[in-house]
UniProtKB/TrEMBL annotation:
Membrane topology: Lipid-anchor
Protein localization: Cell projection, Axon; Cytoplasmic vesicle membrane; Golgi apparatus membrane
Residue ranges annotated for the Cytidyltransferase-like domain, each copy included: 14-104
Gene Ontology biological process terms, A to Z: NAD+ biosynthetic process
Annotated Gene Ontology cellular component terms: axon; cytoplasmic vesicle membrane; Golgi membrane
Protein name: Nicotinamide/nicotinic acid mononucleotide adenylyltransferase 2
Keyword tags: ATP-binding, Cell projection, Cytoplasm, Cytoplasmic vesicle, Golgi apparatus, Lipoprotein, Membrane, NAD, Nucleotide-binding, Nucleotidyltransferase, Pyridine nucleotide biosynthesis, Transferase
Family as reported in the entry's similarity comment: Belongs to the eukaryotic NMN adenylyltransferase family.
Cofactor: Mg(2+)
GO molecular function: ATP binding; nicotinamide-nucleotide adenylyltransferase activity; nicotinate-nucleotide adenylyltransferase activity
Species this protein is from: Gadus morhua (Atlantic cod)
EC number: 2.7.7.1, 2.7.7.18
Amino acid sequence: MTENAKTHVILLSCGSFNPITKGHIHMFEKAREYLHKTGRFIVIGGIISPVHDSYGKPGLVPSKHRLTMCQLAVQSSDWIRVDPWECYQQTWQTTCSVLEHHRDLMKRVTGCILSNVNTPSSTPVIGQPQNQAPPVYQNHNNLANKPTAVKLLGKVSESLGKMCCARPSMDRFTFIDENANLGPAMRYEEIELRILLLCGSDLLESFCIPGLWKDSDMEVIVGDFGIVVVPRDGADTERIMNHSSVLRKHTENILMVKDDVNHPMSIVSSTKSRLALQHGDGHVVDYLNQPVIDYILQTQLYITASG
């Protein structure tokens, strides 16, 4: 299968990241490795989207700290970036809304034809383009010049919102936001692009808890987008799948990563990290990247039981 014939994937992970751990980064790496091995996918990017402060989870530190820690955790990555959109909204956003936001954003500013775009969402946007540059998606009457899709490549810049378009042959990627100056329209080869939710088996299991998720949201998340699941702490993912009618219905949209259940990163969690910090446990270096630990010590986050 040629590169352009493969499905190009952006992995999106939502969560508290309170704090972000080595386990979170491990999920991205294992998911990309597995999807590439299938021969059907090319992962062109990863997005970390920390939850809004109003989520109300006990011990959740302010988003300004969680965003900074996430940035520090991925500062050496050339394919994973941190997105602040969810934190910058007026209130908490559902996972479904976050997925729809990024889907609509990619379609609007790049002209991509996303394979999991069904209907436009009502997700609010930050703003309209500040410059009147020619749109990337234009000239609808001339199919020969119609840029049907793009692959997003390049190194993540320090600015959270800055992104750039590039041809599929390039080796690195980044993204574009609503306010980017896109410049002249460019032509691209047609590719299939999907945004998939990346999660651990604990989130998958939460789909089985009655009343926790709206049925309509689950249908959109699993049916319209699809999910990539990395097993955590020896979870029985097959048992979880059998306990949800929505999961059984959309089995083809659920990609289960074949990871070593005994891998040390599969048991790393934010909860264990906070406890280690509170008790001065040296094992915290096994859970968190050093720049994140340094930031936590500098700001005195999580040092007390109250957060």
